């Protein structure tokens, strides 16, 4: 059991989790060779020994955790973590849903995970909408783990004052506070510079191979390829993503306005700046 996490940063996706993984990997024990094991949502059938092997060679003097944004909207992941690690600490990060959905679409399209334009993806890709049901899924995590074990945070706070954000996070997950270095304040993964794939089919096959390698715990090989010129064979080179119109932003907001109102009441925070008419950037 000492090779199981004591904390999970469950996202949802596109809320700064890659940056947090970069920050925490030197200060906690995270899975080796890959950021996300996907154990509690899609690889649970592989068994606990497969999962523990991701942490096997780690220094056990530090807290064990996982940055796993796909767990947020997974009822199965919530239930399984509760059953296996009932005292786990859960970190949720909420971001303007218009920004987040557009960013998530760009990443999934750039990586060949989905073939559709944005309008079709909203209708056909369940994750785009389901991961934006903030109040619904936060309620499930709170019910399972209790308010003392669930930390609710906001991407906007992380972006505006990353030092204050990581201090709050450090206190919650049980590590000493630390000062961010200059290079740690830089964003590590933005969707704004991405483009459609040059060849969807080639990119799609490439991401399937990468997922298979990760399932075999060969994530380091995937990292090596991503850091080499071979990356250009699979990613990028297509048409740049267009900027969302005011009408599109409003239609996305309308999909989530009920969830936003519930979230405001749950966390006692004014989220009116998420309205498209008040947004300053995408």
Describe the structure.
The protein is of the alpha/beta class. The chain has a single domain (7-194, 241-278), classed as 3-Layer(aba) Sandwich (Rossmann fold). The chain is built from 13 helices and six strands. The chain has helices at 17-24, 48-52, 75-84, 97-110, 118-124, 126-130, 134-145, 155-160, 162-173, 200-215, 219-226, 231-234, 246-267; strands at residues 7-11, 65-67, 89-94, 150-154, 195-197, 237-240. It has a four-stranded parallel β-sheet, sandwiched between helices. A two-stranded antiparallel sheet has the order 5-6. The radius of gyration is 19 Å and the shape is globular. The model has no long low-confidence stretch (mean pLDDT 88).
List keywords for this structure.
two-stranded antiparallel sheet; 46% helix; 4-stranded parallel sheet; single chain; globular; Rossmann fold; alpha/beta; 282 residues
Approximate helicity band? 40-55%
N-to-C series of helices and strands: EHHEHEHHHHEHHEHHHEH
| SSE class | alpha/beta
Q: Proportion of β residues? A: 5-15%
Q: How far apart lie the N and C ends?
A: 42 Å
Number of strands: 6
> Looking at CATH, which topology would you report?
Rossmann fold
Outline the low-pLDDT stretches.
Answer: none
Strand count, sense and barrel status of the largest sheet are:
4 strands, parallel
Lateral strand order in the biggest sheet: 2-1-3-4
Mean pLDDT: 88
Name the CATH architecture.
3-Layer(aba) Sandwich
The 3D shape can be described as: globular
